[in-house]
Write a structure and sequence with these properties.
2 copies of one chain form a homodimer.
Chain A lengths: L2 H11 L2 H13 L4 E2 H8 L3 H13 L3 E6 L2 E6 L1 H13 L27
Antiparallel strand pairs in A: 1-3, 2-3
Helix pairs in contact in A: 1-4, 2-4, 3-4
Chain A binds a DNA duplex (30 and 30 nucleotides) through helix 3 and helix 4.
Chain lengths: 116, 116
Amino acid sequence: MDPQHVIRALGALAQEHRLAAFRLLVQAGPQGLAAGALAEALGVAPSSLSFHLAQLSHAGLVSQRREGRSILYSADYPAMTGLLAYLTENCCAGQDQCGPAAACAPASTSEERNVA
Amino acid sequence: MDPQHVIRALGALAQEHRLAAFRLLVQAGPQGLAAGALAEALGVAPSSLSFHLAQLSHAGLVSQRREGRSILYSADYPAMTGLLAYLTENCCAGQDQCGPAAACAPASTSEERNVA
DNA sequence: TCAACGATTCGATAAATGTTGAAATATGGA
DNA sequence: TCCATATTTCAACATTTATCGAATCGTTGA
């Protein structure tokens, strides 16, 4: 994982609404949530949230798919795991006593996902 | 760990020079590195680095102590561990299959440190 | 085809962030 | 005391980021 990518991911999470949105998506699982549902849950204008979701998407932390009129966003668990791994990579000066960051997999329907 | 604190920490790490500085400090261990040594290693103007170190310090990610003319900065491992814990807290919708983030302790002179 | 709905894109604007050089503060040694 | 070293603070500036409302783009169903 290259540093620029890590910085984008950290920057994407370092904002009140985006961190909250990401947490909701992580909890929502692979099915995800519609942009509108997120906007309402967070109390943010749709156009504002769209901007934030684009940031998260650009950082590779969320993915989107259309379903009817809605666009469903879902957390990208492998990306999250990769970010944690990078942060702990230097931990203990390379000696992996800390162990790698725990893999982050969705609780349900985990059978359809490969966390490489 | 409250969300505002988490955001400060993430924001502190979401910058090229600060992320690099923090990594160097994590690798340097509890003894830390002088501000000047960091500035030279990163190729950043001293006043610029001072600004960045203040951000990291305000986020609670590093601590400082004076030694002679130098000010030595060192990574705050418990803070790092707390940050990772927060990020994984929501993982798997609360079911801790992911396990908590691995504790991050310095490799050497670990006898003088309490990672609660 | 048309109207309603869900979401994004586009401008404009306000706020926060990063950089630099000069000046100020603190320490150590002659 | 005086000077050199190490670092921070300050002010100015350019850049990036966040917000909102209006306009636009897809999709659905009558």
